[in-house]
Amino acid sequence: MNSDHQLHSDLATLTGRADRAVELSGLLPPGRLVETDEDEGRPTLWMTSGPASADLWTAAHKAHGRTGLWPLLLEPLPRDDDFRPWESGELDLETTTSPDLHDHAALLATWWAGHTEVDPDTDPLPETERIAVTAPYGQRWPGLAPGSPFTAEPATFAAEYASHLTDRNPIMRLGMAAAGRGADALAAVGWTGPANHTDDTGEIAAVVRSWEDRFGAMVVGVGFADLYVSVAAPPSTLQEALHVAAEHFAFCPDNIWQNSHPHTLAAYAERLVGLNSWEFWWD
Fold it and tell me: Any idea of the CA torsion for 245, 200, 101, 74, to the nearest 10 degrees?
């Protein structure tokens, strides 16, 4: 285990409060603070030195209300020995703004318009095929999907999903971010996974906040350009799923363009019905 002195020093640096480490004494294995690789490198999260179990994630989450530290299962870039971006500190706090500054509905509508715009000079697909990708909506933004009743406590699904993720990738480590909720942890650590979509992770966090409120979503893990979210209230019908899929397309078009076969909103929506986890990947 970490020495209590070092753990308290690390977490006091991260949170600005020395008492936050008390709840985690004896719980966390060896680890260290991670600093950004910017010129003015700043501590952004605390990370275990080795793999973490789902039970550790769950215990750290249960303590969140007292510690103010949100647990994240951290996944490195595949086939990378340097555990990027976490070990290398490829994180950016300079361009990340607060989620409070962003309107999630306006962001999704703007992103949707950009992804469905047809440019005959550069688009490899004919206009009819491009519009068919997002059928039945075409270029029309359908607005926000209504929320659904939670079928159980979000933390229940999050713990189950943490177990699934660590079984699937046993090298995941545990990160601790000073954040009041999972969505905000993405901005707090300066994660840059969606940089080719938006260079401000505060925008991503603002949308995920809305999913936390409407669908009982919880951020469980994050990779180099991957986001892993548990969902307590997934869509239960194909019609509901299509509406949610439209938000996913606006948020992460690569989920449909590259990770769905065929590459259509409708095919992607079929996979969302009753699914208690959402995974996103940005190229």
Answer: 70
Pairwise CA distance, residues 227 & 178, whole Å? 18
Helix ranges restricted to H, the chain: 4-15, 54-62, 64-67, 104-116, 127-133, 154-168, 182-188, 201-215, 238-251, 254-257, 265-272
- What pLDDT digit, counting tens, does each position of 262-275 carry? 789 999 999 999 99
Cβ-Cβ contacts under 8 Å for 144 (sequence gap 6 or more): 105, 108, 210, 214, 247
Distance CA 251, CA 196 (A): 12
For the stretch 154-169, pLDDT in tens is: 999 999 999 999 999 9
Q: Domain locations in the chain?
A: 4-96+154-228, 99-149+232-277
Cα distances from 126 to residues 118, 130, 160, 260, in angstroms, run 9, 6, 43, 19
**Is the preceding omega at residue 154 within 30 degrees of 0, hence cis?**
no
- Displacement of CA 85 from its chain's centroid (Å): 15
Contact 131, 139 (CB under 8 A): yes
